[in-house]
Amino acid sequence: MRKNLFITTIFCPATGGIELCLHNIIKRLPKGKVVVLTNKRREFGRDFDRWQNYPIYRRGLETRFSKPKWLVSPFFSLWIALKEKVEFVQAAHGFASYLAAWVLKKLLGLPYFVWAYGLDILAMRKSRFLRYLVKIIYKEAAGGIANSNFTKEEMSLLGLPAEKISVIYPGVDGSCFRSGLATAEVKKKYHIPPEKKILLSVSRLVSRKGFDLVIRALPAILEKFPNTIYLIGGKGPDEARLRAMVEKSSDPRIQEAVEFIGFVRDADLPRLYNLADIFLMPSRQIREDVEGFGMVFLEANACGCPVIGGRSGGIPEAIIDGETGFLVDPENPKDLAFKVIQLLEDENLRKKMGEAGRRRVKAEFNWEKITKDFIRSSVSISENF
Q1: What angle do CA 74, 75, 79 make, to 5 degrees?
Q2: Which of these, 136, 141, 133, lies nearest to 90 by C-alpha position?
Q3: Higher pLDDT residue, 123 or 356?
Q4: Secondary structure of the chain in the HEC alphabet?
Q5: Which of 158, 133, 109, 370 is nearest to 378 (CA)?
Q6: Does pTM top 0.85 for this prediction?
């Protein structure tokens, strides 16, 4: 395997699907064959970097002192590529990584792969200038990595041939996300009453997640199951709007049913999935804002929880409709209410879907398999350059 330089504008210990995906792949690659260059963040300590089996350089890949902010990224990349004797470049996240990889090829002849996750590539397409640059960069790329077939199609629209793009889905840590976990502690912590049907949503609170659709669907759900509560975990810019929807509802049952539980610690999340009857995130696409895949559905499934997601972006690849959960029209509260009621009425169906999801995650979305897929599709191709 050639020595790879991963360039990314976001990385652990920050928490997020992209950060975790990159770290879980990188740490499983052969020691001495990986170097990471990422943005410097003053709030990050050195503890995370010290415990990794690969070197991490934190520099200002994006800085407010230059316009455009990504203009400085090639300088740091060039220095590290020479210092570490890099042989291949992975432009793993952000346009700063794309630009740096392209410059390294021009100056040092290093081949590169470009990565995309959905929202990022749509945002680049929005700008005519960035779209022009991305097409140039894609034209000279050795290949690409997409987190879903949806993202793959968006990359191909920018000029990267589909046969050069590999789909590498995110994985799930099965030692953390599993069924059978005790839930008494999280019930007490989040003040969850006993003997309730529990609907759960956890994410950054932004409008595309569709949590407002769940609130709009609640009257029909509560008509059938008045003992239902809806837990909304997370913080974000859409929180005020969601709270206003609840507070201004003419149905007093809504105020009683909806609970905003705030930021959810990583340690609590698997137990909340175990506690929930259904996990919901009926995401929709709002202009360039889209769900590229939806790793939370896999996490919930790994804990034996059936899921409901919006039929948009890459979510149809995260959920097998009718088997591991349901897909719904993300603009239709009646459709969502119908599917929720169907699951709440049938405990056997909930268990069947949750178990099917758990088996699927264990077989197809473990990090060992994901890393092997990456090595086979990306690293093996790099040997030809």
Answers
A1: 110
A2: 141
A3: 356
A4: CCCEEEEECCCCCCCCHHHHHHHHHHCCCCCCCEEEEEECCCCCCCHHHHCCCCCEEEECCCCCCCCCCCCCHHHHHHHHHHHHCCCEEEEEECHHHHHHHHHHHHHHCCCEEEEECCHHHHHHHHCHHHHHHHHHHHHCCCEEEECCHHHHHHHHHCCCCHHHEEECCCCCCCCCCCCCCCCHHHHHHCCCCCCCEEEEEECCCCHHHCHHHHHHHHHHHHHHCCCEEEEEECCCCCHHHHHHHHHCCCCHHHHHHEEEEECCCCCCHHHHHHHCCEEEECCCCECCECCCCCHHHHHHHHCCCCEEEECCCCHHHHCCECCCEEEECCCCHHHHHHHHHHHHHCHHHHHHHHHHHHHHHHHHCCHHHHHHHHHHHHHHHHCCC
A5: 370
A6: yes
Nearest to 147 by CA among 290, 301, 351, 324: 290
In the structure encoding, which two tokens stand for residue 85, read together? 């004797």
Indicate if the pLDDT at residue 63 is higher than 90: no
The token pair that represents 355 in the structure block:
């178990």
Chain segment 88-119, per-residue pLDDT in tens: 999 999 999 999 999 999 999 999 999 999 98
Tokens of 306: 């059936």
Specify the length of the chain in residues. 385
Per-residue b or e along 258-286, where b marks 16 or more CB atoms closer than 10 Å to that residue's CB = bbebeebeeebbbbbbbbbbbbbbbbbbe
Please give the pLDDT value at position 150: 95
Q: Is 109 exposed, middle or buried (0-12, 13-18, 19+ CB in 10 A)?
A: exposed
Task: Please say if the pLDDT value at position 187 is more than 60.
Answer: yes
Over residues 364-374, the mean pLDDT reads 93
Per cent of the chain over pLDDT 70 is: 96
Q: Which residues contact 215 (CB under 8 A, 6 or more apart)?
A: 230, 242, 245, 246, 249, 254, 258
Of 281, 284, 277, whose CA–CA distance to 353 is shortest? 277
Distance in angstroms (rounded) separating the CA atoms of residues 284 and 81: 40
At which residue do the structure tokens 């405990």 appear? 347
Q: Select from 224, 230, 212 the least CA-distant residue to 310.
A: 212
CA distance linking residue 190 with residue 213, whole number of Å: 23
